Structure formats: structure tokens, C-alpha cells
Amino acid sequence: MTALTHVAEIQRSVLAAEDLSMFGRDPWWLVLIKAVFCFAFLMVTVLFSIVWERKVVAWMQLRIGPNRHGPWGLLQSLADGVKLMLKEDVIVKRADKVVYVLAPIVAAIPAFMAIAVIPFGPAGNEVSIFGHRTTMQLTDLPIAMLYVLAVASVGIYGIVLAGWSSGSTYPLLGGLRSCAQMISYEIAMGAAFASVFLYSGSMSTSAIVEAQQERWFILLLPVSFIIYIVTMVGETNRAPFDMPESEGDLVGGFNTEYSSIKFAMFMLAEYVNMVTVSAVSVTLFLGGWRAPYPVSTFWEGANHGWWPMLWFVLKVQLLLFFFIWLRGTLPRVRYDQLMKLGWKVLIPVSLVWLMLVATVRALRNENYAFQEIVLYVAGAVLTVLVISFVADLFRDKKAKKAAPADTPPAAFDPMAGGFPVPPLPGQSLPPVPRRRPRHQRELIVSGAPDAATASDGKETDGV
Length: 463
Known about the structure:
Blueprint lengths: L1 H16 L10 H33 L15 H11 L10 H17 L13 E3 L2 E3 L9 H22 L3 H32 L4 H6 L6 H4 L1 H14 L11 H4 L9 H26 L7 H6 L8 H23 L5 H31 L4 H33 L61
Antiparallel strand pairs: 1-2
Helix pairs in contact: 2-11, 2-13, 3-11, 4-5, 4-11, 5-6, 6-9, 6-14, 9-11, 9-14, 11-13
């Protein structure tokens, strides 16, 4: 009965948090102040993240890092921004000028919009700003997380349009890579979100944080957290998934033909997206604005006043350090490995995990005991594993019977389509003709009438 009472209390608190009547009551000037704060928070965090990334990567590679502009190089980001704005703004001749100029704006603006529904503090704990009591959140919606997904999807158009409007091959390939990559990883991201929705019973960000009062969802939904961490790296085009701007393959990617302030806007969109996905991860899985476990136990005021904003910022910075750590540690994966991870690993695992979470929640709502739930779930998992093993066994036997004996593999022609193509898995390139052994070669006589013919008339290899 204690567990059921605890679940009922959580559901009542979530329903209370879904009461969004406290939003929309602020005067217009206070709404403007909060909107400016959200914009300033993103910009300052981006400026700090750029310097921090260069410092941390330099520390990992035993280098000094930026140390000229400002104390300890803290103004390096401002110096980079001034340098980019003073560069010549070139528009290539074959570009579609309207779309070419619009693409960086389309990529940058949606990156700022998602922060509007992220709570920096509890909805019920209002703070005083110039004598007015208000929540530490710009706004909230009953479908706030769907709004975040929709805004993130719009940002893809900026990169795709940038590659298409440049009128060049390499930017187009970079834009297409980005489109395929983001679509692939958004499916698994949506399934990870759905697991949180099922467990919290709401899509409101403030209600999701309220549902983590006792336990953070990183402990209750660890698979969803891991899936989201991988997908958020793929969504932001960061290493090791930075395929759209892989310099070795595409000479810069979708932003090859951009310079000056338009190039800076693409870089700004990338870093703002890093901050946004980190804030979403904190909200969904890391307790949002709540203080960590050791602090919240011995300090009752840790989650009141302005202190929740401190815990939120620290968690966001921890995830930004994770981004930097990945960039300094892992090499870039191949594009086929990226697609295989997205479609053959993340999506199936996220769907199976979503079904498992839905089953557990349904059994909890029917008042089944924890031991019975574990028994049912374990039995279902074992049944699926046995069925898949038997199916694979019979499929392998049929494949061996159907395959003709001693059939030589089909020859691979790398020029079959009129241009060189790499071999597919299971194919191999034809043997490369080698030079004759060294002992069979003969020196060319200086002054011979034919450069490929020796004095005795024998054709030889040039040495």
C-alpha cells in the first residue's frame, strides 16, 4: 500500500503542476524581460562554451589554448565574432540569393525558440522581479515537448536550404547528409521522449520536472537517457557525428560557400542547439532545476528562491563538457556506420524499450505487485529471445539449402555506372596489375631512341 500511495501522490503532484494558470498573467514588460533573459542566457552560455571547448581540448592535447584576448583568454569568443563580421561577405555567382541569405536565419532562429518552455525553477515557487511575483519560466504548454520537437525540426531546413542554394556540389551533399542524419535520429529521440511522457503522465515541462520529485528519470528510464544522449549528439551535428561539415569528405560541407556573418550564424546555431538539447536533457532526465541528492537532503532551501537556477546551469554545463569530451576523444564515424547505428540499433531499441515501459506502467496502474511485474516482463523478454533464436536458426538452414554449391561470386566492375564507385559489403575490387619482379627488370640505356625500349630491343619498365 505504501508504493501505491506514493504513486498516487506523484500523480496528484503532476496534475497540480499541469495547472498552467500561473502562466500568461505577467505584464508585457515582464514578459519582455524574461524573453531577453532567455536570449542572453543562451548567448552568454555560447560565448563561454566556445572558450571552454578550446581550453578543454587544448588541455586534453597538452596545448595552451586561447590566452591573449582578455584574462585567461575569456574574450576569445568576442574576438572571433568581431573577426567574422569584418570578413568580406561573398555571395557566389550561381547561388539563389534569396534562399542563400535566408538559410542562416532559418537555422539560427529555431535554435533560440525551444528555451521558452524550459523551466529554470519550480512553477509553484514564484520569485520577485521589480515587485512582481512571477515564475522562473517564460511559458509552458500542455504539449511543450511537442513544441520542442517541432522547433528542432524546422532548424533542419536551414542547413538543407543552405546546401541547395549555394549552387555547388559539395554544399548540396552536406545538406543532404544533414537531412538524412537528423530525420534518422529524430525518430529514436521521439521514442525516448514518449517513454518520459508515459511515466510522467504529461508533456508539460514543469509537470515532468515535478514528477521527478523522488527519483530522477535517469534512474527510472536509463535506456531512454542513453538513447537521447546519442541522438542529441547526432541532432547537433557534433563529433563523432559531424557528417554534414566533414572537411575531409566535403571540403567544409553545407557551409562551404558562406563567409562573414552568415557563416557565424551557422556556428551560433550549432552551439545554441547544444545548449538547448542539454537543457532538454536536464529537464527530462536529470531532475530539471532540482538540487542533487546530497544537497537536497540536508538543505531544505536548496529548491527555493533563486537557487534552482544554479543547479540547472551546473547540470547544463556538465552536459556541455560531455559534448567537448566526445569531440576530443572519438574520431568521426563513417556515414554508413552513422546510418546503421540510427536505423538498426537506436530505433529498434527505443521502440522495444517504449513497449516495455508502457507494459510496466499499465501493470502499475492495475495495482500489480513489483514482483509480478518483473516476472511478467522477464517472461515476455525470454519468449521473444527464444522465438528470435529459433527463427534465425531456420532462416540460416533455408539460406544454406537455397544457395547453389561452389558458385563463384559475381565480378565487381567499379566503372559499371560510368564513374568509379566503391565496392559494397561482400564485394571486392579486381586485382591491381603489379609491376614485374625486380630481377626481371632491365635498365634503360641512356640515349635509346625509345624510352620504353632498351638497347637490345626488349621492352622494359622504366626505373
